[in-house]
Amino acid sequence: MQLSIGGNCLEEERNMYAPRVFISMMCALLVFAVATYFIHGSFYTAFIQTIICLVIIQVGYFIGVVVLVAREKRQMRETLGFQKETPPAAEQSVTENITVVPHHHAKLTDF
Fold first, then answer.
1. Which residue of 16, 29, 83, 99 is most buried, as measured by CB atoms within 10 A?
2. Per the confidence metrics, is the pTM higher than 0.70?
3. Backbone dihedral region of 24: left (phi > 0), alpha (psi from -120 to 50 degrees) or beta?
């Protein structure tokens, strides 16, 4: 856990943890469903509107995750100095690094 320095948020508050988001979403949907039922007096209307609210919340959660991933990617690129224009270094084949050893029969004393 990181402390707040220079106005930065705590590390835990910056990230979206799935269990916390899931429980918060369920509580919000429950309150929404109860309020909608009392306003309209119809279970069917409350159910349909709660499902619509659920979809809206899920879309918002997905957008939030995409934003966090994009931010992390940008920070990694800045921190590690990655550049898009630089082509990747040529990798050597595994077979180029293998050293040939003279033929040797295993003996019981080798173990």
1. 29
2. no
3. alpha
Q: pLDDT per residue over 56-65, tens digit each? A: 999 998 998 8
Measured CA angle at 20 (ends 45, 47), to 5 deg: 5
Residue tagged 């990617």 (tokens): 73
Amino acid at 99: T
Q: Nearest to residue 9, comparing CAs of 77, 70, 68?
A: 68
Q: CA 26, CA 47: separation in Å to the nearest integer? A: 14
Contacts of residue 82, Cβ cutoff 8 Å, sequence gap at least 6: 76
Tens-place pLDDT, residues 31-40 = 999 999 999 9
Q: Which residues contact 72 (CB under 8 A, 6 or more apart)?
A: none
The CA distance from 25 to 21, in Å, is 6
